[in-house]
Amino acid sequence: MIVPTSTMLTAASKAAFAVPAVNILDNLSLRAVVAAAEETEAPVIIQVSVKTVRSFGVRLVTEMFREVATSSPAPLSLHLDHCPDVELIREVVDAGWQSVLFDASDRDLNQAEEETAQVVAYAHAAGVDVESEIENIIGVEDGVGSDEAIHSYGVGTLVEVANRTNADFIAPQLGTAHGSYKSKPQLLPDRVREFLKLTDRPIVLHGGTGLSPQDFSEFIHAGVSKINVSTALKESYMRSAKAHLDVASAKNEWEPTRLFADVLSGVRQEIVGFIHMFSAAGKADLVAEAVK
Description:
Its cofactor is Zn(2+). The protein has 292 residues and is an alpha/beta fold. The chain has helices spanning 5-15, 27-40, 50-56, 58-69, 86-94, 109-125, 155-165, 189-198, 213-222, 231-251, 256-277, 284-291, and strands at residues 19-23, 44-48, 76-83, 99-103, 129-133, 139-141, 144-146, 169-170, 203-205, 224-229. The chain has a single domain (5-232, 275-291), classed as TIM Barrel. It contains twelve helices and ten strands. The strands form two sheets. An eight-stranded parallel beta sheet has the order 8-5-4-3-2-1-10-9, sandwiched between helices. It has a two-stranded antiparallel sheet with strand order 6-7.
């Protein structure tokens, strides 16, 4: 079932869990993530990077999602991740996606606020939610981002900008980073608590891959209601494929459909683990009730 992203996150905020937001790569990874959601009876946000959507095209990604999601009992939404391109956001909004992340973290504060307000106005007119990022989260993901802290602001400033732009969710720097960690990150769950003293807008955690179950638990108890996972899916996808191809090569047996099945199984198992770590298993009914 297709539901608004905001409905999922409101339910998560009330029930103290986080909705997994998983970056898919293709139809195979899409079906694996949806299978994980169905197996665990969890709501899941299907995220797509700018790089992926430009590779497949907005129309094909939209149709793939709708084909899978409309027949699924799991609450699902389609979300454009880390997009600094206003024109692509407009195309996705026109296609009826449920939410977008407008990444204005490479702009100065005034420009970031002005463009975020324009994106929100356009998206809300079509019933699409907007996640706002105006201070950059460390790391490069699919060609978007920076390994340096370019813009950083106080909690009060970020909340004031969200209020003025009417953004639905806030993606702040919380000590995490995109990609794989090379050293232990200095996590900031207390910063989440600072946000929630000033706003009821959902707070989003980026850079979920590599954190421990305890780390996730601390962030969820602090009030995070959406956690992004990308690198872990890519790694499970490629490792499952490699394991299959190693066996196929040894046996000289080459059957692509078996490869697809093994990759789907590997990715599904990986995402099932995150769903449980985020306490989202069994929460599908809460979201379904909120839709009624």
